[in-house]
Amino acid sequence: MSTVRAAILLLFAASIAPVARAQAIPYQRPVDTAPQQNTIGGGYKTPPVQKPLPRDAWLQLLDVALLGLATGASVWLVLNRRSRKGLAWLSLGSLAYFGFYRQGCICPIGSIQNVAVALVDPHYSIPMVATAVFFIPLVVALFFGRAFCGGVCPIGAIQDLVVLKPIQTPRRLDRVLGLLKYVYLGLALFFAVRPALGRDFVICRFDPFVGFFRLSGAPHMLMLGAAFLIVGMFVGRPYCRYLCPYAVLLNWCTRLARRGVTITPDKELDCGLCTGSCPFGAIDKMRAVRKDCLYCARCYTSCPVPEVGRTPRSARVPLDPQLGARP
Amino acid sequence: MTLYRRAAWAAGLVLSTCLAFLLADYAVAATRAPRDASQIKSLQEQLKSDASLAPRLAAEQKRITEARLARKLRDRWLAWTLILAACAFLASAKRAVRPWQPLAPKPIPALPSRDRQGAVPRPINEPPPLDLSYVDTAIAQHGRGRESAIPLLQAIQTHYRYLPDEALRRICELTDVTPAQIASTSSFYAQFRRSPVGKHIVRVCHGTACHVSGARQITEELRRYLAIPDGADTDPSRTFTLDEVACLGCCSLAPVLMVDGHTAGRLTPASARNALEETA
Question: Over chain A (327 residues), what is each successive 10-residue block's mean pLDDT?
């Protein structure tokens, strides 16, 4: 297991090297569709709106650092503190920053396309930020599971907010609908790797929630987003579970994770309260299914056993006296 | 609860009104746009031949621009109201659907205090005063020597179903058997017990097969269900005594328990409770 993980990490590291070289290419965006200063003449100055500059380098670094910090905080809050409250505040903060302030861009879900294009098109220089944003959640998932989904992803956070009275979707339906995300990932890659003129970033174009973050958008996309939120009141986080293409990659990485949200058989009652509390159907036969777990910590909050629910790992005592104290 | 429900309905009403207005506004604007465009176009065409139409074109353009700006402003206000109403709706609906509870539930202090789901409340029975006359009969039957200690204890165990302290004291008074001998003998053999026993004896198998199929969960569930306090083996109503035994000899039925002579197998915590209820 750890060999596979090491191999994947090495692969990630190797793929960063050419990207780092690409950062030396100076930023330019030639405008050739609109008339320019010299063609117009007469001292006309083209307004800066035609050539928007990229975000300052330090601000981009700040975004990446915040993403990494928030993912780490998500791991710590869920695995160590087991605190739903802390995680809820973290996801609200992420929704405010990555969602409303950064307007949902750049996000790891969309960065799949940038990475795919960078892999097939030698003329495309992928920004370092896109690479970092793509890899950080995956590397964390290799060790701890989908911590990004719980505390950082703004798309997840807005859906988590509207969870009102979630139903337990039948497992078979869950599984069938879950296949949609593979189809979506396939389509997204297909459109992203086409030659430059026919290229289309469908994940970003059909992001149902980005219209809310930007407070404007095409009416049909806003309506789609509203429909997702209304469904999301009764089916927990439908986009994340059934459509999110990034979830496919996170699933694969999570399979290798050593730690994650765990419902321990020897420390709790097997009462099943946590199964009912999970809005995402990620608890099967009273055990957490790590690849589906979205790191919301609701199961820990619903646990009546204090040893499992809230106490820090270091101070926990086994419930069953027959098992004895553990080292 | 009702307050939150009412708030949720009110916010939902505001929300859907805003949504309806936005949609209607969008629909009206979408149908009006091509009409306005064609009108402007035809006016521009006519302007080429008739210059007097210029002010009319300007007025028309001004009207359309103003209508669009007004719609933009109106929609912005509607959208913000909608967002606020959505927040209010979610906040109140979450409380209405699930009454507000603290994020961490109150921990249960000890296992037996957990709710005894579906249990018939049984009265707490005080044991009746002991009739010690049988002790004299037994002594007359088995003799007064040190060697009759075990037969005496067996007779008393059979009669009272446990060894009452009063009966043991009486044996010591009337025979050569010493308290030390009684204490050591009665604690050595598993057939003797010193505490009162319930009406029914439940033997939960803890053999290997039953252990791996969850005998511990069954025992814990029964202890919880019968509200047997920690350290005791009989419930307060003295109906059931819970006994953990090594093997009942029917591993294929694991996990197994026996209520008196009746065996129940392939148990779940729920069916174990039912097995008890059928007896009681």
Answer: 85 77 66 75 75 79 94 93 90 94 90 90 83 93 93 94 89 93 95 89 93 87 92 94 95 90 66 81 86 89 66 46 41
- Residue ending a domain, among B168, B188, B208, is B188
- Indicate whether B83 and B153 sit together in one domain: no
The total number of residues shown for chain A amounts to 327
- The DSSP code sequence of A12-44 is HHHHHHHHHHHTTSPP-----SS--HHHH-TT-
Mutate to test the interface with B, among A298, A301, A319 (most CBs of B within 10 A): A301
Which range marks the domain in which residue A81 is found? 10-20+57-312
Do B85 and B167 belong to one domain?
A: no
> How many independent structural domains does chain A possess?
1
Using a CB–CB cutoff of 8 Å, tell me whether B73 touches chain A. Answer: no
Domain with B245, as residue range(s), is 200-279
* φ, ψ dihedrals at A68, nearest 5°: -65, -45
pTM of the model: 0.65
Smallest CA–CA distance, residue B166 to chain A, in Å, is: 34
Instruction: In whole angstroms, give the CA distance from residue B240 to residue B273.
Output: 12
Does the distance separating the beta carbons of B90 and A162 come in below 8 Å? yes
Out of A164, A226, A309, the one facing B104 most closely (by C-beta) is A309
**For chain B, what is the domain count?**
3
Query: In 10 A of CB A311, how many CB atoms?
Result: 15
Same domain? B10 vs B86:
yes
Smallest Cβ distance to A301: which of B26, B90, B103? Answer: B103
- Show the beta-strand stretches assigned E in chain B: 200-205, 240-245, 257-259, 262-264
Name the closest residue on chain A to residue B8, using Cα atoms: A164
Question: What ipTM did this prediction achieve?
Answer: 0.74
Q: Tell me if A159 is assigned to some domain.
A: yes
Judge whether B79 is closer than 8 Å to chain A, CB to CB: yes
